[in-house]
Amino acid sequence: METLQIKTPSHCCAIDVTDRVGGALKEKSAQNGLCLIYVPHTTAAVIVNEGADRDVMEDVLEALDRLVPWKGGYKHVEANSAAHIKAILAGAGAQLVVDSGHLVLGTWQRIFLLEFDGPRTRKIFVQFVGDRGPSGP
Ligand code: ZN
């Protein structure tokens, strides 16, 4: 398993991690199989969605803010329940097919880390399951 470290620059943001995940697969000589991507945090998420137009992720973050306002009369003493709720809505991971060493994504798709309570340093676990090339560990 590979662990990616991602520094998020602001309180709420979307970070395109597609190339980092692809690099982790290359290091493991991944060829054909599945790539499991998981974020081990309770106030961040990993999603697959449009990366061609950066405004889409801005719209997503703004829509989540409208759905789950930061101040909402929550009970959690850490006062970041909105971030926890957004993380549940967006999900903690993704599974992608790897074909001939490449992530199989739609034309407009990218992999994003969504930060809901930054800035922080986040981890993303990347596990490849499948056939490796001749130089693979
Ligand atoms: Zn909390």
Placed side by side, the strands forming the largest sheet appear as: 1-8-3-5-6
Order of helices and strands: EEHEEHHEEEE
Could you say what the CATH architecture is? Sandwich
State the total count of DSSP E strands. Answer: 8
Categorize the overall geometry. Answer: elongated
Biggest sheet record = 5 strands, antiparallel
Mean pLDDT: 96
Summarize the structure.
About 25% of the residues lie in helices and about 40% in strands. The chain has three helices and eight strands.
List the helices and strands and how they pair.
Blueprint: E1 2-7, E2 13-16, H1 18-27, E3 30-38, E4 44-50, H2 54-67, H3 81-90, E5 93-99, E6 102-103, E7 109-115, E8 121-132
Zinc ion binds next to loops.
Describe the structure.
This protein is an alpha+beta fold and 137 residues long. It has a single domain (2-130), classed as YjbQ-like (Jelly Rolls, Sandwich), CATH 2.60.120.460. 25% of the residues lie in helices and 39% in strands. The chain is built from three helices and eight strands, in the order ββαββααββββ. It has helices at 18-27, 54-67, 81-90, and strands at residues 2-7, 13-16, 30-38, 44-50, 93-99, 102-103, 109-115, 121-132. Strand 5 and strand 6 (102-103) form a beta hairpin. The chain starts with a strand and ends in a 5-residue tail after the last strand. The mean pLDDT is 96. It binds zinc ion. Residues 76, 78, 80, 84 line the site of zinc ion (ZN).
